Amino acid sequence: MAVDRVYQLQFIRPLYRAAVTGDLEAARSIIARQGDLVRYINENMETPLHAAVTSNSTWFVGYLVNMMNPEDLELRNKEGNTAFSLAAIAGNVGMAKIMVEKNPRLPTIPDHDDKMPLYLAAFHGKHDMVTYLYDQNRRMTGDGCWTNDRKDEILLKCIEADFFGVGLRMLNDHPELPQDNNLGDVLQTLAQKPEAFHCRSIQSSVKETVESYGIWCVFFFFINLLPGVLLFIRTSIQGKLMEKPKNTIDDILKGHSLCGTYPYHVVFVATRMNNSNFLAELIREYPDVILMNNDDGQSIFHISVSHRYHDIFNLIYEIGSMKHLIATMKDQQGSNILHLAGMNPEKNPYGDFLAAPYKLQRELLWYKKVCAVVPPPCRIVKNAAGKTPYEIFDENHKDLVSQ
């Protein structure tokens, strides 16, 4: 729409300024004289409704929507976003409801990158909007626009945002998810989330479960002592790994590593992140994880010893006779897990608040704990450098003794 400068200054700019600031009275005054401006498109291809969404004024949005035709709400800005998509990004459910009432098609209109409003809401961490849009989209069914790839990418964003309650609903509504080619990404994302098992996340999962399923599911939830995130992991893994050939499972667990030679990326990402709960669930479904090695020839237990990850190491007491294989296994340097216990930890697990005698005591207790699972002959065996485990311990802890 070609307009002169006077018209711009007198009507258009004041209208967009009113939209951005949520000044409803000023907008009413302008639109009363120039009604067509309600669907005016500026140089950024934005309508006043696009601008109004950023003001977070639900009343203002309601006023503009009431003045517009349903198809006007489908107009996109330069980034390919409808005003509805911007509301999804902002997480304003009130605005979204107003627009959907005018045009029910809006939740199924993607942006220029083919991302649905539901995806955008999950990407930006807007839980209430995700819940609303999931129901509004009939749980991602119908309309021919909900491909499995689209569902998978939304599932992944829900996991990244810790929306495990919504993720559980998706898995229950769509048992085909995640697809084989995306299962590795799902597992890798879960592997990087040890904080999801903390109390706050568990409480959040309980809240989501109440909202999504009702009180009876929460009763079941507590009877089984199964926090939402663990239930999510079990639901996403059970029947997805065990039904597949070993080669396929190994490929899934290798994931998309930045280093082409790095094996079983999912497993060792979880280990580096000290995600013991994730590893416990993975071992429960696929015990071969126990004997997987990284590039240094180390198992998850070797790494846990080096980093002083007690919870992961404690899993060794639950693996039966395989414990003896781990206890005698040597890495590329010829070191067994007791050699690693004698070395300084990869990271300081004690902080600066412990005095040297207490650090030494902790280290000695850790060494003895690991020693208890190692056969006597392996306690005195030398590594490639020609040193026994205790010689390594003595050498690496002299500074603590001197303090």
From TrEMBL:
Matches recorded under InterPro entries: Ankyrin_rpt (IPR002110), Ankyrin_rpt-contain_sf (IPR036770)
GO cellular component, one term: membrane
Keyword Nucleus: no
Keywords: Membrane, Transmembrane, Transmembrane helix
Membrane-spanning ranges: 213-233
Gene3D superfamilies (UniProt xref): Ankyrin repeat-containing domain
Keyword Transmembrane carried by entry: yes
Protein name: Uncharacterized protein
